[in-house]
Design a protein that fits this description.
The protein has 210 residues and is of the alpha/beta class. Helix content is 38%, strand content 16%. The chain contains six helices and six strands; from the N terminus they run E-H-E-H-E-E-H-E-H-E-H-H. Strands 2-1-3-6-4-5 form a six-stranded mixed sheet, with helices on both faces. Helix 1 links the parallel strand 1 and strand 2. Helix 3 packs antiparallel against helix 6. Bound molecules: zinc ion. Zinc ion (ZN) binds next to loops.
């Protein structure tokens, strides 16, 4: 069970949105389903990132996408961009959100995950806000929250480059499994896209207290 906690919003938080892969990244796509539909992670996460950015701007949130390009930008360069901004605004006042779709070996896994770097920091608190929001917004069929409670909170501790290399608070969302047909169909549907956008927008609004 999640401990009851009082969450203090950070009104001055700068939000950095990272849409990981590029059009030239190998793999990172769903199978082509019987009806010809297919999800490309770079394209999907950019669409989500743009919509999240637009929505947040409407609410007056200080938000910036660190990968405006369609091509694959290395983790080193993405960390450099994020850290440059974090140095300017203060790394305590900056949260990076990296948006992804998950994949498994056999196409059977389903569900939603949030990751932070190893150990406990403010990032874990922010990840919990995301987790709670995802749980609230995902419809029952897709609502398979994949959690790691071993350290008392629902996020996964992961040694991912974008989490390790950034100086600011950072978390990474794995938005359902693109290689599971049910998850993928939901992701590609207009309803599914709105849900994924809403999870990010609503969680960030909670974090910045708007
Ligand atoms: Zn990814």
């Amino acid at each position: 069970m999640l401990k009851k906690r009082v969450y203090i919003p950070h009104f001055m938080m700068k939000i950095l949105i990272d849409n990981g892969h590029g059009e030239n990244t190998a793999g990172k796509r769903s199978p082509r389903w019987a009806d010809g539909s297919q999800l490309f992670e770079w394209k999907y996460t950019r669409e989500i990132a743009k919509r999240v950015e637009e929505e947040l701007k409407k609410h007056g949130v200080d938000v910036e996408r660190i990968v405006p390009e369609d091509t694959d930008i290395s983790i080193t360069e993405r960390c450099r961009r994020a850290n440059q901004i974090a140095a300017r605004v203060g790394k305590q006042n900056c949260l990076l959100v990296s948006i992804h779709n998950n994949a498994s070996q056999n196409g059977k896994a389903r569900g939603w995950e949030v990751h932070t770097y190893l150990g406990q920091s403010k990032s874990d608190e922010y990840a919990t806000v995301f987790w709670e929001t995802a749980k609230e917004f995902l419809p029952v069929g897709a609502n398979k929250m994949r959690s790691d409670w071993s350290d008392g909170d629902p996020d996964w501790d992961s040694n991912f480059g974008i989490l390790r290399g950034t100086t600011c608070w950072a978390l990474l969302t794995e938005n359902l499994f693109m290689d599971n047909e049910e998850d993928c169909r939901f992701l590609l549907s207009p309803e599914g896209k709105s849900v994924i956008v809403d999870i990010h927008v609503k969680a960030i609004l909670k974090i910045v207290g708007k």
